[in-house]
Amino acid sequence: MTISTHRLARETMAFVLAGGRGSRLKELTDIRAKPAVYFGGKTRIIDFALSNAVNSGIRRIGVATQYKAHSLIRHLQRGWSFFRAERNESLDILPASQRVNERHWYLGTADAVTQNIDIIEGYAPKYILILAGDHIYKQDYSLLLKQHVETGADVTVGCIEVPRHEASAFGVMAVDDSDRILEFVEKPEDPPHMPSDESQSLASMGIYVFKTDYLIELLREDALSEASEHDFGKDIIPALVAKGNAYAHPFSRSCVTSSLEQKPYWRDVGTVDAFWQANIDLTDFQPELDLYDQSWPIWTYSELTPPAKFIHDEKDRRGLAVSSMVAGGCIISGAQLNQCLLHTGVRANSYSELNGVVALPNVDIGRGARLKNVVIDRSVRIPEGLVVGEDPEKDAARFRRTENGVCLITQPMIDKLDL
């Protein structure tokens, strides 16, 4: 019998884990959770997981929030309020609120689901899809659901192929030829390799599919265990692997690509360097991630802004941008941009020179500033004549400078400058 992916999606609830801080992003997550960090000119990181769910046909979604959630909750309210209850659609925001145990917030990824079992049972989905809310990728989850049903697995784990020498940073699984998971280990020194390629390993994407009734049974057992850390990757998944009915689903089988994308794209933009690089990569002539693919749109909160504007046409004072992405509401006023990504409402003033700049919304760049390889946080005011990216020692003394030479600039850092 042919399994309808559309029917499976309608029988599924997606539960997005969006409570993580993302401390490796440093000051970018001082006031917002990692899933709420801006990305790609107008979206936030969480928009990718949510868009994948909607585009896959899933219309029941819960988002668990915890760390500094105001920015994230406001974004969800503004940009994701189009679900209609009369069509059996919903998006529930589920803050950690000591609903089950008054002694603690969410203890781990599994506990975040446990504390919302009553809400899940109220919707009575047949399947539940656990998602991480902090990665950049396009995936058709209905194909993952289909494999789960066809194999009769207790759990199906979404995974990506990574070079074996890089796999120690992930939860890694050993599988047999039928994709049954034989072993699941967190950040191993000697990662197991794929059966078909000894140079590659399968790393967990933090995506899991369960039958809802079975997951609830597992979670209630886990909640009673004092030895458990109440985490999917550390407790739930290894226990199911030991029982012998856990399966892997390689990302390459369900990734969504346009005619312009040559290979599956997945990024964890969890460091300042990775965040800067993934944004700058979007400015390439043919980027690895196609944000212009209308068949798989990335939904988000779209602010009402005028078009971007480029003004002045004089020697050394010409508003222009080369190999760059400039969002609505930006004004390039006699500034020169090369390989930059500007989010909504950025203003670059006369005689400024920007190379490899990722500017979050409403940044104002003063006259004559020269900036190279920087990430600028939201609403920062860059002083006139500021130079960043030419003197490594001076940059490191004033800003957050990474090993790869990328500088993160926030307003408190600017306020401390002796100008």
List keywords for this structure.
9-stranded mixed sheet; 29 strands; 419 residues; globular
Would you kindly provide a brief summary of this structure?
The chain has eleven helices and 29 strands. It is α/β, with parallel strands linked by helices and 419 residues long. The termini are far apart.
Structural class: alpha/beta
The overall pLDDT, averaged over residues, is 94
Number of strands: 29
Oligomer: single chain
Question: What's the Cα radius of gyration?
Answer: 23 Å
What's the N-to-C terminus distance?
A: 72 Å
The proportion of strand residues reads: 25-35%
Tell me about this structure.
The chain has 419 residues and is of the alpha/beta class. Helix content is 23%, strand content 28%. The protein has eleven helices and 29 strands. The chain has helices at residues 5-10, 46-55, 70-79, 109-114, 117-123, 141-151, 212-223, 232-243, 272-281, 392-398, 411-415; strands at 12-17, 38-39, 43-44, 60-65, 90-95, 127-132, 136-137, 155-163, 171-175, 181-186, 200-211, 246-250, 266-267, 309-311, 313-314, 317-318, 320-322, 325-326, 331-333, 336-338, 341-342, 347-348, 353-359, 364-365, 370-376, 381-382, 387-388, 400-401, 407-409. Strands 1, 4, 5, 6, 8, 9, 10, 11 and 12 form a nine-stranded mixed beta sheet that branches. Strands 17, 18, 20, 21, 23, 25, 27, 28 and 29 form a nine-stranded mixed beta sheet that branches. The model has no long low-confidence stretch (mean pLDDT 94). Homotetramer. Its EC number is 2.7.7.27. Pathway: Glycan biosynthesis; glycogen biosynthesis. GO terms for molecular function: ATP binding; glucose-1-phosphate adenylyltransferase activity. This is Glucose-1-phosphate adenylyltransferase.
